């Protein structure tokens, strides 16, 4: 089971990353690795087909529009729990401490340490148990990303849905149920507000 999960996490981390020529070249390898565990391949099929058949510049442009220019599908886990608040700096520091605590050098590639593809790659290649703890801790973030992708009919939605199935417990039925799971309302973009504002209470254990 651990080997299957590691393969799935690494494939997901790559498929959710910014598409470049290196990623496109990896598609046959990703498909072959997932094919070792047949049930893991279907959620990836649409993204792999998209990478193989879409001109690279077009795929890159769409990725920037969907994942970088807006927050609807933000892949930074703590954005969904802490918004753009001062508390988020502490949370990002906690992610870095997890990476350092594993004794492995994690290349952030200029990304914030809570970037989902980075967390997945860490779980797959460095410390599966600790990586899954991070994913479970930010389960509401994963679920909200999933619902956002599904709402906008993006090919990455099946991958995130599959990631949720690797974690304990059933997925919430809708976004309101996710909010109840988290224990508070949606994130805000409120730099400079009091980090102890009750509307911005962190997740339990965060």
From TrEMBL:
The keyword Magnesium does not apply. The keyword Transport does not apply. GO terms for molecular function: metallochaperone activity; unfolded protein binding. It holds the Pfam family Nitrate_red_del. GO terms for biological process: chaperone-mediated protein complex assembly; nitrate assimilation. Transmembrane segments: none annotated. Gene3D superfamilies: TorD-like. Keywords: Nitrate assimilation. NCBIfam families: narJ. This is Nitrate reductase. It comes from Arthrobacter alpinus.
């Amino acid at each position: 089971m651990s080997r299957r999960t590691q393969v799935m996490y690494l494939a997901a981390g790559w498929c959710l990353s910014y598409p470049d020529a290196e990623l496109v070249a990896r598609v046959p390898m990703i498909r072959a690795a997932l094919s070792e565990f047949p049930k893991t391949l279907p959620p990836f099929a649409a993204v792999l087909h998209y990478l193989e058949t879409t001109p690279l510049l077009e795929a890159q442009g769409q990725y920037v529009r969907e994942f970088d220019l807006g927050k609807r599908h933000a892949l930074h886990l703590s954005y969904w729990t802490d918004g753009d608040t001062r508390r988020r700096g502490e949370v990002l520091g906690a992610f870095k401490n997890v990476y350092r605590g594993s004794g492995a050098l994690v290349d952030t590639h200029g990304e914030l340490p809570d970037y989902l593809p980075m967390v997945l790659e860490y779980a797959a290649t460095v410390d599966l148990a600790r990586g899954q703890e991070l994913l479970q801790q930010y389960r509401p973030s994963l679920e909200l990303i999933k619902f956002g992708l599904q709402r906008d009919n993006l090919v990455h939605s099946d991958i995130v849905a599959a990631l949720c199935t690797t974690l304990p417990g059933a997925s919430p039925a809708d976004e309101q149920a996710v909010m109840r799971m988290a224990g508070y309302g949606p994130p805000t973009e409120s730099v400079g507000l009091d980090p102890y504002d009750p509307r911005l209470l962190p997740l339990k254990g965060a």
